[in-house]
Specification:
- It is a single chain.
- The chain is mostly helical and about 110 residues long.
- It has one domain.
- Helices cover about 75% and strands about 0% of the residues.
- It contains five helices and no strands.
- Helix 1 packs antiparallel against helix 5 and helix 4 packs antiparallel against helix 5.
- The longest helix has 25 residues.
Length: about 110
């Protein structure tokens, strides 16, 4: 779960950070607003990527799910974030589902032959 969900959050941070400049140029949002919102979301995503999947860090999955809602809500600043937020929310939900399926099958640990 750690690798899959952490990768989703890391890629989401990159995409959100790359949306800062278009938000300023295309939507006439002030640089401070775009940088604050986009930078804040990107930093939180990077921090959560480090916590997700670690023992006793179940709260990181809940925080990551809330982050997905915040990214969708960022569509107010840049409308394309609605679509990107939905895509990343779907990837996030799929990552959690696949990780839990993998763990339930008992093949979650790697063994050497």
């Amino acid at each position: 779960m750690r690798r899959l969900c952490g990768t989703v959050l890391a890629m989401e941070a990159v995409v959100v950070a790359l949306c800062i400049v278009p938000a300023m140029a295309l939507e006439h949002v002030r640089g401070g607003v775009a940088g604050g919102i986009g930078g804040g979301i990107a930093i939180v995503a990077i921090l959560l990527a480090g916590f997700v999947g670690r023992p006793k860090m179940g709260w990181a999955l809940i925080a990551g799910s809330l982050l997905q809602l915040i990214v969708i809500a960022a569509g107010v600043v840049l409308p394309v974030m609605y679509a990107l937020g939905i895509i990343f929310a779907a990837l996030w939900a799929t990552g959690i589902w696949l990780a839990r399926k993998w763990d339930a099958s008992g093949t979650g640990s790697v063994t050497s032959a």
